[in-house]
Amino acid sequence: MARASTIFVCTACGAEAAKWHGRCPGCGEWNSLAEEARGGAPARAAGAAAPGRPIPLADVQAPHVPRLRTGIGELDSVLGGGLVPGSIVLIGGSPGIGKSTLTNMALGHLAGAGRATLYVSGEESAAQIRLRAERLGPTALEVPVLAETDLDTVLDVLRAERPAACVIDSVQTLSSAALDGAPGTVGQVREVASRIAEVAKRSGTAVLLVGHVTKEGALAGPRVLEHLVDCVLQFEGERERTYRTLRALKNRFGSTNEVGVFEMRERGLAEVLDASARFVGEATKAPGSVVLAAMEGSRPLLVEVQALVSPSELVPPRRVCTGLDRNRLALVLAVLGRHAGVGVGTADVFVNVVGGVRIDEPGADLAVALAVASAARGVSTEPAPLACYGEIGLTGELRSVAHPDRREDEAAKFGLRTVVSPGTAPTLRQAVRAALQGGERAARAA
Ligand code: TYD
Ligand code: MG
Hints:
Distance between the termini: 85 Å
Largest sheet: 9 strands, mixed
Helix content: 25-40%
Number of strands: 20
Bound molecules: thymidine-5'-diphosphate, magnesium ion
Strand content: 15-25%
Number of helices: 10
Structural class: alpha/beta
Radius of gyration: 25 Å
């Protein structure tokens, strides 16, 4: 019965087909057709509804809706001030990063503040969730939990309970009986998200939708939901390490600039408000270590970048990095060799952003280059630790990056008086010389 009302829609071009094809008849894309339910509320009915009259924006009523504060400051600021009632927030991240912990804590705070909450888990049993909640404190135990994977049952409960905030953990584990696909397939994931959004809008429930992402950031996962939800948050970090960052990739109700830093502890996630101080405090003065004055959204953050360069027996030699983009490392090494006289052609190179933080900005180039140069020459930067930032161009020039003043203020605040940047050195060669000449002089004298 329900089968008759399902069609297949291409996630790439939007073409519709009555049956599944391996390749879209519209645009020729492979594996892009996803099953979709048709009937009640088709996805594209929005906008086509009332044959209305355009109104000047100035006359549009936009009532101010108070936000729901989750009580986790870093989460609230990444959201732009808290959860918006009736909105859908997708939290993506690889397994084990702490999504369940974070969402459970948020609901706990809300429950403690007297709000109606609901934690839906298709992933863990109620007993497992209780064990986690025990670690998170008394308010986490006040959250009602529903261990369920059937979408219609979850929707019925949502309609009946009308919680102020609800967590769906995870979108990949719920499924609709009306669709053929297994839970987690593109069609199911889209169906789950859009039907929950519909119900949430009506009841004013703020929904936190948890989604797993693979290392490649794909696989029938949250990516196909980005346009269906109001806000996409990404929870990142290395699972074995303690620090994690939370950033907004999309936010209809706030900026995408804020980044929250958390630390996984014995009793849940703790906000790290003094991240720079910790990372600088831990920075070593050994060759191969520099401090990067990074920008995490609109917040400056000092992190230590370390490099190790060692002779290799492998052809090609190893190029390993954590917390950074591999292709960017390759580029930096090429420019170092070609334009700055630091060749590491036959050596293994390891580069690591300390603390498990992931840095995704062009300003990290110079830190990688100086850490590698310092490791390759075996001398420490002078003075150690030294702060730096800047993008490296293919012709060996240093290019300016956003917010130089905020980066320098942050470095000064933590006692790093020497900052090497595009402002102090126009080329990578000059930057390497400025950073290492003191150390090389000392090495020669010794
Ligand atoms: P979890 O929130 O289950 O991750 P996800 O939902 O993203 O898969 O938690 C991940 C890890 O965090 C888990 O291995 C256990 C650890 N953990 C702590 O170290 N301290 C704690 O208080 C909790 C609740 C979990
Ligand atoms: Mg989980």
